[in-house]
Amino acid sequence: MTSTYPFEPTPPWTTVNPRPFLPFRTRCGHGSEALETPPLPSPRNELFNDNYVVSTHLVPASCPRLTPDIPLPVVPKFSADAAERKLGIQQLFAEITERQECFVRGELGGERSEKPLWNCVNRYVKRVQDGRKGLTLFFAHANGFPKEIWETTLRYLLSSPTASLIDEVWSWEAVQHGDAALINETNLSGIFDWQDNARDIAHFLLYYLPEDTYSKGLPTHLHLLPETTSESRKTIGFSSRSLIAVGHSFGGYSSILAAVNFPALFSSIILVDPIAVQRERWPSREEALRLFKASPFFGAWHPDTLQLYVTYGLCNDSQGGVKLKMSGLHEALVFADRIGGNEAWELLEKVDERIELRWIVPGKPEDKGIMGEKATRVRVWRRPANSSNVVIHSAGHLIAQESPEELAQDISGFLERKYGLRSRAYL
What we know:
This protein is an alpha/beta fold.
């Protein structure tokens, strides 16, 4: 495919010495000790459009975690005094930053956490399938957003002619996001490592993603696959799927790390442009939506995506109002990890050249990507072979939220070019 940004070589850099992937432990989640299976906070089993059904499922997260189980930092009580409130937030971020730096230096101490955690996934499956091997899409969200944030993009994509190529879509939710945050609330640590989200994604794809794309329903708690199947996937990939990952920011970096370690799982990766703590509670969803629309940050969003965020990103609280499913504190803990992003940037050149990369990056004059346009131009060519890029000029970093129709159109064009001309029997 053609590219908006021409090739630009990577300037010299200092290595961060990327860490090897921590192996999965079979005891946690799929061993002799059965996990207590939690209920879904927001179960779905309904028509998504005329041709696809959406359902929600749970899988155990990878274990052990890279980080120890430590208490959450204490959020300062709200103060009516602006200076006092600002000081409290500064002290909180200083504590979070110091924890992260101690962890990186190996000075934090503590054993790796083995508390059970869960990932939540939405499945969008074609109601009628013709028995031939089509495409499986895997969507991974940016920090701070629920798995449903992709649904405006999916409505455009799955109602386009390209939908004929797509048998199934899985939308991922990291352990401290959305419904997963509600399930894991009491077991989340006060520190987070991005590599754990990448390990969770690989864990799902290796051990829990079903072999075939059945039109029939799946259990809420997906079943562990036979060991022979999982081991085979590590070396030769899926027997009856072609998997394309679509990752936004945090989700894109996580997909890169998973692909570096298990390249056989991926056919292609679409990378969608790989902070502040916001208000967390409102009297009602209606009031939250009204205030979001008046905000410069949310005002740029597509209205359908903003409604999805209010519907699926908030939940009822004990005070009769609504709150974010993912707290601002956990969002800050994810942002505090800078090692994961640096590791992914360095490892990009090691992604198997068989896996085609398609970069979709922002082009708004005031927001041309993380760290600016120059860094974006370098990033999209970190692995030059079998790679292309496009700029969406109507969006900033939050492409999926601001320009979901344009995003769907580019994903559609990529899938049609790479897979549409080939017989579905050979996908």
